[in-house]
Amino acid sequence: MTNYIIAMATFAGIYGLMALGLNVIWGMAGMINLGLVGFFAFGAYSTALLTKDLGLPIWLGITAGFGFTAAAGVVVALVTGKMRGDYLAIVTLGFSEAVRITVSNEIWLTNGTDGISGIPGPLRGEVPPETFNLVYLGIVAVFVLVVYLVMQQVRRSPFGRVLRAIRDDDQVASVAGKNVLMFKAKAFALGSGILGLAGALYAHYTSYIAPDGFVPLITIYIVLALTAGGTGNNAGAIFGAVVVVFFMESTRFIAALAPGLEAVQVAAIREMMIAGSLILILHIRPTGLFPEHAPVYRPPSPEVKP
After folding, report:
1. pLDDT of residue 250
2. Is residue 225 in a domain?
């Protein structure tokens, strides 16, 4: 039971990183991104190919997962720079499916639908599985803390204020002299890089990845996590991810208690219970459990001349 709780806490941390990445793109810049799982997979496959096939160190693979995914985010942002709302959502969703189809069919590179196994993990094989799980939870927690602190600085910075201005009205930001497309590209790159970082950590934790593991439902879970936690709030993004993972796992035991149901019916009941719980949260707190509060800007006090 202890290993199970540690594993769920690790996945909650990975989901929390994804929610932080989405918060930059959507919560701060106002760009709808339904291709989260595509960037997540991009980072996972990047580090898997580099560390397993080329034998590079794990830390370098994780760094590359962040960098390559950030670069992909820049490309997507530049292509979709003038798109808004539903159009942007459709394009990013298409990107996600393009990544999944590519890794499913390029057998020479990704092993197709059979996936990639034997991805190295820090201390895997050198310590008991229980110790490995605990160590990896600590690693994920450190990454979550560092990314959270960085995102807090970004949110309070002039860059973060410009992103919120673009979110509220990009035409006004453009009239104020801001290069809206460039700021959007930077936000997309940063958010996508964090999503790729989460994918890299996921790959090294599970040691196996396959296209079937990167389904659009993951994107929905992360969107729900950010919405329930509080769009625009970094702490809310992490807490929302914890709430979603808690609902996902607690419903597993509750639904199993219903007699005479098949596996498909149990899965449907679980999805209904998760959806109902999140709807209840949003009904009680429409702006999320931790609604966004814009940082207060205090101009420097004028110097008093004698």
Report:
1. 81
2. no
pLDDT in tens, 187-206: 999 999 999 999 999 999 99
**116 DSSP β-pair partners:** 209
Number of structural domains in the chain: 1
User: Which tokens go with 136?
Assistant: 């990896």
Nearest Cα neighbor of 282 from 215, 218, 236, 216 is 236
Residue 228 inside a domain? The answer is no
Q: Are 226 and 22 within 8 A, CB to CB?
A: yes
CB-based contact 43:196 (threshold 8 Å): yes
Domain interval for residue 104: 2-214
Examine residue 304 and state whether it is found in any structural domain, yes or no. Answer: no
Q: Are 242 and 16 in contact (CB under 8 A)?
A: yes
| Contacting residues for 196 by C-beta, under 8 A, at least 6 apart | 39, 40, 42, 43, 46, 65, 66, 67, 68, 69, 70, 72
On whether residue 239 sits in a domain, the answer given is no
The amino acid occupying position 256 is A
pLDDT reading at 305 higher than 60 = no
- Taking CB atoms within 8 Å and a gap of at least 24, the contacts of 213-219 are 213/115, 214/37, 214/38, 214/40, 214/41, 214/44, 214/99, 214/100, 215/37, 216/34, 216/37, 216/93, 216/96, 216/97, 218/36, 218/37, 218/40, 219/34, 219/35, 219/36, 219/37, 219/96
d(CA 237, CA 138): 19
Q: Interhelix angle for 2-22 vs 234-256, to 10°?
A: 140
- pLDDT per residue as tens digits for the range 159-177: 999 999 999 888 888 888 8
Q: Whole-angstrom Cα distance, residue 29 to residue 85?
A: 12
